[in-house]
Amino acid sequence: MTAVLQARGLGKRYGRHWALSDCTLDIPAGHVVGLVGPNGAGKTTLLNLASGHLTPTTGEITVLGGRPGTDPNQLRKVGFVAQDTPTYAGFTVAEHLRLGARLNPGWDDATARDRIARLGLDPGQRAGTLSGGQRAQLALTIGIAKRPELLILDEPVAALDPLARREFMQGLLEAAVEHELSVVLSSHLVSDLERACDYLVVLVDSRVQVAGEVEELLATHHRLAGPRRDPDQLPRDQRVVSASHTDRQSTFIVRTDSAIHDPVWTVSQLSLEDLVLTYLDSSTRVAPRPVLEVQR
């Protein structure tokens, strides 16, 4: 598996505050990756480290096989759309494209102009008069026309209305397929991730709680409901992710590759939102059981 991003013990500190600490992660190439986590988990810091806007305090990060932001060739490989989808209010749409062409040696002007035309944006209109959705699409167009190998987006649709979010995500997915982009997208909106992402990373307190292809994660996570039982009583091949109990009933979320045959359980599948919330909810999360050593 080729990784577009690898982090090992990665950390970033501001004074006494650690915005990210001891983060270890592998993100494979060829995916649209959804990065999810609560506020303060370190998502934005991780993406800024990956794009070369920040340098690590501790640990290591490599992107596309090199250190982020270290040389022009490395910078050309990575596109970045920040949280506020930055544009220059006084610049027209056409001036944004000309600026993109001057700053990016691999600029694809035909793609940029074709996309602007398909979006119905007026090249002579100033960015300050565009709607939030139009500004986001302009920022995405610049990111795509740079022709990067990896496109990083930090909460690009957080402030958009539902229709603008849908149009943005649809455009992103089309671009990823057309230009064979690897994409890392952070978002709090799981519904948007469901539309576009085929790989999921959940980050909590700088630590990766779960990572994998969405289809595989949904196929291997199950909700079990039945008579009250201690998590340690479940088979060893069922990793208990979360547990909740009433006086008589237990509900577990388990991860397993094996079929669940015990008739005592009512077994149901999880939605992507269920899966994400399971790993975010510290009140029900269960620490992994220790691995038993085989005595020889």
UniProtKB/TrEMBL annotation:
<dbReference type="Pfam" id="PF00005">
    <property type="entry name" value="ABC_tran"/>
</dbReference>
<keyword id="KW-0547">Nucleotide-binding</keyword>
<keyword id="KW-0067">ATP-binding</keyword>
<dbReference type="InterPro" id="IPR027417">
    <property type="entry name" value="P-loop_NTPase"/>
</dbReference>
<dbReference type="InterPro" id="IPR003439">
    <property type="entry name" value="ABC_transporter-like_ATP-bd"/>
</dbReference>
<dbReference type="GO" id="GO:0005524">
    <property type="term" value="F:ATP binding"/>
</dbReference>
<feature type="domain" description="ABC transporter">
    <location>
        <begin position="5"/>
        <end position="230"/>
    </location>
</feature>
<dbReference type="InterPro" id="IPR051782">
    <property type="entry name" value="ABC_Transporter_VariousFunc"/>
</dbReference>
<dbReference type="GO" id="GO:0016887">
    <property type="term" value="F:ATP hydrolysis activity"/>
</dbReference>
<protein>
    <submittedName>
        <fullName>ABC transporter ATP-binding protein</fullName>
    </submittedName>
</protein>
<keyword id="KW-0813">Transport</keyword>
<dbReference type="InterPro" id="IPR003593">
    <property type="entry name" value="AAA+_ATPase"/>
</dbReference>
